[in-house]
């Protein structure tokens, strides 16, 4: 058993029976709490889940008799005691921990409440923080459907200050990190900085990314076709059976043609829908012209390895996770 005191940085959504999962699974809510030097991922079980409704980010709590479940992770159940400290105790959470400045190149559409975010840090390393939820990306004024009406905490070609740790999940990819906390967008790159950053970090080809052990990269292809299709024929989730998916056909710098790559870039879906509203009968042609007349870069990524399908070329399914368009220099 262990007792810890820290500031609540994040409260994850409810998982378990009431969240629509397996009725036999216990419900759980995770807190990310931290002091100046370290953090803990605290899972609230049993009657302690109700406490999550009383907590808010920034509260200071003391958790007594928590059970250590794994490194950096504890469970707080019926025998634990959780005290919200109301005496104005100040904790400068993570003030002694090194943060990373992430230039964001991917903010994917929400998928079951989670959002894939990826980018390049100040050391030139690709980073994919894991365990990011919609509330970690979009402000409280977001619609919750991937269309933000408030301030985004991660935005393409902006620098966000984040705290991450080693990812301890199964089958980690090289770029995977556990997301502890993000302080939000520090600044947006200028147009000149965007052009320079993209040109400096572009990869030679798709093969140059995925055949060298990486699962994230950036290419500058020739766009051949961009189109949308309904998910009806391939949907397994009834809630998504009429959802629209955008797909790309393109040729990379090696001259190889790739077809039907799924696009998951949230910002590009917003752009697509804007064109669709403004140009009802010609939006597809206009978008294609827009991508071709400017410099278009694609952030590409691999899903987790699908062990149920053999002979996948890259061992997993490739997709487009970010679309970046800048005026020709």
Could you explain how this protein is built, in words?
By secondary structure, the chain is mainly beta. It folds into 3 domains: 2-85, Beta Barrel (OB fold (Dihydrolipoamide Acetyltransferase, E2P)); 100-191; 198-326. It has 5 helices and 17 strands. It has helices spanning 134-137, 191-201, 206-210, 266-278, 283-293, and strands spanning 2-11, 29-34, 39-44, 60-70, 73-76, 81-85, 100-107, 117-120, 126-130, 158-166, 176-188, 216-219, 222-230, 244-251, 257-263, 295-302, 318-326. The strands form 4 sheets. A 5-stranded mixed beta barrel has the order 1-2-3-5-4. A hairpin with a 5-residue loop joins strand 14 (244-251) and strand 15. Helix 4 crosses helix 5 (283-293). The N and C termini lie far apart (60 Å).
Quick structural summary:
With 329 residues, the protein is mainly beta. The chain contains 5 helices and 17 strands.
Q: What's the helix-strand series?
A: EEEEEEEEEHEEHHEEEEHHEE
In total, how many domains does the architecture comprise? Answer: 3
Helix-strand makeup class:
mainly beta
- In total, the number of strands is 17
Relative helix content: 10-25%
Rough outline: elongated
Computed Rg: 21 Å
């Amino acid at each position: 058993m262990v007792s810890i005191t820290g500031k609540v940085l994040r409260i994850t959504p409810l998982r378990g029976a009431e969240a629509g999962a397996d009725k036999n699974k216990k419900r759980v809510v995770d807190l990310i709490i931290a002091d100046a030097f370290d953090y803990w991922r605290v899972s609230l079980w049993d009657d302690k889940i109700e406490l999550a409704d009383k907590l808010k980010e920034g509260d200071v709590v003391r958790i007594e008799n928590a059970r250590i479940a794994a490194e950096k992770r504890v469970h707080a159940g019926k025998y634990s005691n959780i005290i919200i400290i109301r005496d104005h105790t100040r904790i400068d959470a993570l003030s002694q921990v090194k943060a990373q400045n992430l230039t964001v190149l991917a903010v994917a559409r929400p998928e079951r409440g989670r959002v894939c975010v990826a980018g390049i840090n100040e050391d030139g390393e690709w980073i994919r923080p894991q365990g990011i939820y919609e509330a970690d990306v979009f402000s409280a004024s977001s619609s919750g459907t991937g269309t933000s009406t408030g301030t985004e905490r991660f935005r393409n070609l902006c620098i966000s200050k984040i705290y991450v740790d080693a990812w301890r999940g199964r089958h980690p990819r090289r770029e995977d990190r556990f997301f502890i906390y993000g302080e939000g967008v520090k600044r947006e790159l200028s147009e000149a900085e965007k052009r320079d950053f993209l040109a400096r970090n572009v990869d030679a080809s798709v093969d140059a990314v995925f055949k060298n052990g990486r699962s994230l990269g950036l290419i500058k292809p020739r766009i051949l076709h961009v189109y949308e299709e309904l998910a009806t024929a391939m949907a397994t989730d009834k809630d998504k059976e009429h959802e629209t998916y955008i797909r790309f056909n393109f040729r990379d710098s090696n001259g190889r043609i790739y077809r039907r790559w799924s696009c998951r870039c949230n910002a590009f879906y917003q752009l697509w829908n804007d064109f669709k509203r403004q140009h009802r009968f010609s939006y597809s042609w206009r978008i294609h012209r827009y991508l071709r007349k400017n410099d278009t870069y694609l952030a590409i990524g691999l899903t987790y390895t699908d062990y149920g399908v053999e002979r996948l070329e890259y061992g997993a399914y490739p997709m487009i996770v970010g679309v970046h368009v800048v005026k020709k220099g």
